Amino acid sequence: MNVYMARAEWAPKPDYLLSDREKKDHRALLAYQVYKNITAGIESVDIPSIKADEVLLRVGACGVCGSDVSVLKADTQGYTTYGGHLRFPVVLGHEFSGEVVEVGKAVTTVQKGDLVAAEQIRWCGACRTCRASLFNQCLNLEETGLSCDGAFAEYVVLPEKYCCVINDIAEGLGNKMDALEMGALAEPTCVAYNGIQVAGGGLKPGSHFVVFGAGPIGLAGIMLAKAMGAARIIAFNTNPARDCLAVAMGADTVLNPKVLRQQGTSPGQQVMELTRGIGAGMVMEASGNIGQVLPDIMECLAPGARIVQLGVGHSDAGFNINPLMWKNAVISGSSGHAGSDIFPSVLRMMAAGRIDPRKMITARHSLDNTQTGMDAFAHREAGHGKILISARY
After folding, report:
1. Domains of the chain from N-terminus onward
2. Is residue 381 predicted with pLDDT exceeding 80?
3. Are 80 and 73 in contact (CB under 8 A)?
4. What pTM did the predictor assign?
5. Helices 186-193 and 216-227, axial angle in degrees (round to 10)
6. Comparing 380 with 97, which gets the higher pLDDT?
7. Cα 392 to Cα 379: distance, rounded to the nearest angstrom
8. pLDDT(325) > 90
9. Average pLDDT in the chain
C-alpha cells in the first residue's frame, strides 16, 4: 500500500536534557530540540498486520493539520519547528476516519463493515495521570500520526479502544463518504470541545463568545459556541481569506485586529461596544500568539469570564494578572480530546444535525497528492480551512 512517510535524523541539541524515555526509544517530547533534516514523500509498504485488540481500517479521509505542516517545516539549523511529541520515521495523518476491514480476535465493540472515527490520543490507563482521569496528560502517551503511524495511507491499524462507531451518521446523511468526512473532522472539533466544555468549564447559554484565530480549531470553536447557545460570536482573524469561513461556521462578526489598530481602536474596545458593555463570557485563544493577543483578551472580559488557551506557539505570555482578579476570571489550558465523553458527545451532535464541520472543508486531494495538500495548507494567504486527504479521492 502507499503511505506518506516522514523521516528525520535524531540529533539532540547539546544543551537539551533528554528524558529516560527519549533516550530509550527516540520518542521526542519536544521535537524541535532533537530532530533535524526532515524528508517526506509517498512510499510503498506492506499492509500492516493487527494484534488481538486491534482493527484494520481502510482510510476514509484524513485532515491536514497545522501540526503536520510544522513537523515538516525546518528552522535555520534544519530542525523541525514542531514543538510537541514526535517520533520518526512515521506515517503522518492524525485526523481520520475509516471503514473496518478486519478485526482482532479479542475485539468485541466493532465489526467488519463499521465506519469509525479515530481518537488520536493513545492513553495507557495505568499511569498516575490516567488514574486521575487526565488522559491527555498520560505519562506513556502515544499519538497516532505523530509518534506511531497515522492515516495518510490506504490502511491504518487502530486499537479497538480508540474506535468510535459512526454508522448512525452515515444513516442520517444517507452517504458513506459524507459520514467518513464528518468522522475525519471529529478530532479538531473535539479539541475545541475539550477547551470549551471540559477545561473551560462550559459555555453559559446567552453569554458572548470571542475567539482569536480562525484556523480549524477556531472555526470548530465558533461552530460549537453557536450550537451551545452563545449570544454574540465575535471572531478576530488576521487572514481575510478565512473571514467567510468564520461566518459560515456561525460567527456574527469577524474583525481584523491589525485593521482595528490602524483605525485607532482595539479588539477589546470593539467587543465591549458590540456587547453593550457586557464583555465576553468566554474567550478562546486559538491563534498561537498568546503574547500578542493577551492584552486584548484582558480588555474584553465580562465578570466571571473564562479564557481557554488552545493555540500552540512559542511567544512569551508575560502579563499583568490584576484584570483576572478584578473580573474574577480564569485562564484554562487545554490540550487534546481524550476522556470526559468528548468524542461520543461531538459525534452525537453530528448525528443529530446540530453541527456540521464539513463547512470548513476547502480542498480534497488524493493520497498520491498529499504533498500538494500540505503545501496548500502551509500557504497562509490561500485561507484554507480544512484540507482532506484520501486514497478514495
Report:
1. 2-184+356-390 (3.90.180.10), 189-333 (3.40.50.720)
2. no
3. yes
4. 0.95
5. 70
6. 97
7. 24
8. no
9. 95
Q: How far is CA 229 from the centre of its chain?
A: 22
Residue located via cell numbers 459560515 = 248
- Quick check: helix, strand or coil at residue 305? strand
Cell of 220: 470548530
Q: What is the distance between the terminal CA atoms of the chain, rounded to a whole angstrom? A: 16
Least confident span in 66-75, 108-117, 289-298, 365-374: 289-298
Summarised one tens digit per residue, pLDDT across range 41-64 is 999 999 999 999 999 999 999 999
d(CA 259, CA 264): 9
- Alpha-carbon gap, residue 285 to 214, rounded angstroms: 10
Q: Are 71 and 129 in contact (CB under 8 A)?
A: no
Q: What is the DSSP string of 206-227?
A: TS-EEEE--SHHHHHHHHHHHH
Do the bridges between strand 54-63 and strand 155-159 make them parallel or antiparallel, or are there none, so unpaired? antiparallel
Element at 346 (helix H, strand E):
helix 342-351
Q: Which residue's entry shows cell 468510535?
A: 164
Q: How far apart are CA 83 and CA 91, in angstroms?
A: 18
Torsions phi, psi of 5, nearest 5? -100, 135
What DSSP state is assigned to residue 162? G
